[in-house]
Structure formats: structure tokens, C-alpha cells
Write a structure and sequence with these properties.
The protein starts with a helix and ends with a helix. With about 120 residues, it is mostly helical. Helix 1 packs across helix 5 and helix 4 (about 65-85) packs across helix 5. The protein contains 5 helices and no strands.
Length: about 120
């Protein structure tokens, strides 16, 4: 049970770090000083999101099932990594180092799937 608790706590560390950064920014007032700087920061965020969206855009005109498979492949793989990492806890006789690597992989995949959403909700 302590391994599961450690896994959950370590997956929330990035959210905590970002929260501390936001707290420092709000207390010190360090932020974009002009409207032009804020527009540039927002443009960079838009470019980042466009680059992520291009990863799921296939070239040409493939079949719909190929488009759907490509769009979901990363999420399916992340789900399998999470399930495999958590399942490693319950395999008897498995070396503790292997379990630790499995849980670390599950943490990474969990952060990929839910990290940005948790971060956005934490900022609200």
C-alpha cells in the first residue's frame, strides 16, 4: 500500500512545483510587463498547441480507421503502461527494482494523460 501511496504522491509533485511557481509569480508580481510581451507569450503557447495538433494530422487521405488509430495510439499506449506498472505491484516474486521501474513508467504515463488537466484545474 505504501508503494501505491508513493506513486500517487510522486505523480502530484509536478503539480505542486507548478503551484509553487504560480504562488511566487503572484506574490512577487513577476509577469509580462506590457501587452506586447503578453501577446508574445500567448503566441508561443498557441504555436506549442499547434505543433501538438500537427502530430495527430496524417498526410494524404488515409482511411478513417487509420486516422482514429493514429489519434488514439499514444493514449492507448499510456493506458497500457499505467496498467502494467500498477500490475507489477501484484506479481508475486517480482524484484523490487522492476516494480519501481514499472511504477515510475506508470507515473510518467499518468502525467502525460492527466498532468496538464490537473495543472489547469489547480490554477483555477
Amino acid at each position: 500500500m505504501s508503494v501505491l501511496l508513493t506513486t500517487l504522491l510522486s505523480s502530484l509533485i509536478p503539480v505542486g512545483i507548478e503551484g509553487v511557481k504560480q504562488l511566487i509569480v503572484s506574490k512577487t508580481g513577476v509577469q509580462a510587463t506590457t501587452v506586447d510581451e503578453q501577446i508574445k507569450l500567448d503566441d508561443q503557447e498557441i504555436k506549442r498547441l499547434e505543433a501538438i495538433a500537427k502530430l495527430d494530422t496524417p498526410g494524404g487521405t488515409p482511411s478513417q480507421w487509420v486516422i482514429d488509430l493514429r489519434a488514439s495510439a499514444r493514449y492507448v499506449a499510456a493506458g497500457m503502461v499505467i496498467l502494467g506498472g500498477v500490475a507489477a505491484i501484484y506479481i508475486p516474486g517480482l524484484d523490487s527494482k522492476v516494480v519501481a521501474v514499472g511504477l515510475e513508467a506508470a507515473n510518467c504515463a499518468f502525467g502525460f494523460l492527466f498532468g496538464q488537466r490537473i495543472l489547469v484545474n489547480a490554477k483555477k
